[in-house]
Design a protein that fits this description.
The chain contains 4 helices and no strands. It is an all-alpha fold. Helix 2 runs antiparallel to helix 3. It is globular and about 45 Å long.
């Protein structure tokens, strides 16, 4: 069983999500490749949290189907290698940031400590 998400983790993840979505400038000490790695790490941390929540739902319900499907899409996206080229990495980072934001939202504040 996984531990609840700590608020400090939520803040760090949210900050990197904001950078990935272009809502916060990427600082000089972090480039897009580093941000890509961080977002992939955040996703790896959040997936078990959501998996635990999904496992508690009735299998076959619309909510279960939607969440399980989206989780599978995210896992496939994360399994893909980091692309080469500035435009490709920028688009990948944006998508990973959106995935992180969705995972955080789905995990819910009630499960954070």
């Amino acid at each position: 069983m996984t531990a609840p998400i700590r608020e400090t983790d939520v803040r760090v993840i949210a900050e990197n999500v904001a950078r990935g979505l272009g809502k916060k400038d990427i600082s000089e000490d972090i480039d897009r490749v580093t941000l890509d790695i961080r977002l992939r790490d955040h996703i790896a941390y959040l997936v078990p949290q959501l998996r635990r929540k999904i496992d508690g739902l009735w299998r076959g319900s619309p909510e279960w189907s939607l969440m399980a499907c989206q989780l599978d899409v995210i896992k496939r996206r994360v399994a893909a290698p980091t692309p080469a080229g500035d435009r490709a990495i920028r688009l990948t980072v944006m998508q990973l940031a959106q995935d992180c934001a969705w995972l955080l939202e789905q995990c819910g504040k009630g499960e954070r400590s």
